[in-house]
UniProtKB/TrEMBL annotation:
PANTHER family: DECARBOXYLATING DEHYDROGENASES-ISOCITRATE, ISOPROPYLMALATE, TARTRATE, HOMOISOCITRATE DEHYDROGENASE, MITOCHONDRIAL. It comes from Cutaneotrichosporon cavernicola. One of its GO terms (biological process) is tricarboxylic acid cycle. Keywords: Magnesium. The keyword Magnesium applies. This is Isopropylmalate dehydrogenase-like domain-containing protein. The keyword Endoplasmic reticulum does not apply. GO terms for molecular function: homoisocitrate dehydrogenase activity; isocitrate dehydrogenase (NAD+) activity; magnesium ion binding; NAD binding. It comes from the Eukaryota. The lineage of its organism: Eukaryota, Fungi, Dikarya, Basidiomycota, Agaricomycotina. PROSITE patterns: IDH_IMDH (PS00470).
Amino acid sequence: MASALKRTSLKIGMIPADGVGKEVLPAAQRVLESLGSAIPKPEFIPLLAGWDVFNQTGNALPDETINVLKTQCDAAMFGSVQSPSHKVPGYSSPIVALRKHLDLYANIRPVASVPGTPGPEVNLVIVRENTECLYVKQEVIEDTADGGKIARATRQITSYASERIGRMAFELALRRGQERAAPGAPATFWKGKPLVTISHKSNVLSVTDGLFRESVRGVKENSNRYDGVDMNEQLVDSMVYRLFREPQVFDVVVAPNLYGDILSDGAAALVGSLGLVPSVNAGDNFVMGEPVHGSAPDIAGKGIANPIASIRSAALMLSSLGYTEAANRINAAVDKVLVDNKVATPDLGGKSTTVEVTDAVLNYL
């Protein structure tokens, strides 16, 4: 990924997809365009995917989108997808498919409060395994002898996927520890060694969650590289409780796909809104930024969607590519907007539009 630093241009696939994705991704693009020489000249390649595309073409993820991402792009940004809650023949979530096609096996979701804003002190990262668990989407439904129905879903956990997501979590914990210890680093409430918390439910699902737990633990236990990182465990149900009561006890959390999805969405409440929380889908050779919020069909088209999660996702994408200084500039500008609290979208209690919030971030940049 660091080789991107040598490029004269940065080709970014832009996939707005559905709902408010079409409104917040342009905000992220404006911010990226404003960075000047801090990054190579960005070139944006518009690409199609999503429920709207499925309704128009019968394919939620066109082959061209996959091919362009693989052959022409250095990175990508994804907006949001509107998936139906009922089964639709031929439809499958394009974001799930993209993660598989590009081997983006880690979904990394930082949740951090901004000093000077209301709420608890939070600075944690949830590292979610991105390729298996129940999201392999192997489901069947059958008729029963008594005239009813029975539905079954396959839950897949492998040692391979669990070990590499564990490695990603421990590497991230190492890097966070180094950043906190660096000269001139901002003060932080975290005083001890970096910590990886493994979240699971192996007391009930002893085979599948048991394998995840053992595989992640083995990453640390079988290498002295992570001697500087502490490790503990938290059953996922009790973790939900502690996440809201004591968020400050968590540093890096690693979890299977479904648990990581639920935990990271819930953790967004700690910092005020899903509209603030970014993520990247990361693999060994590609990264795709994606705001955590969904397509929000109730406000789509009204121009009031919060663009900050998308803007922060763009910063996280840049950081993953090695452009740390540019990413820090974006996050510092966003922090100033949040501290000022003069311009805010309705999810944060304000009356500002998507464009007005974006303008405020650009003003600080």
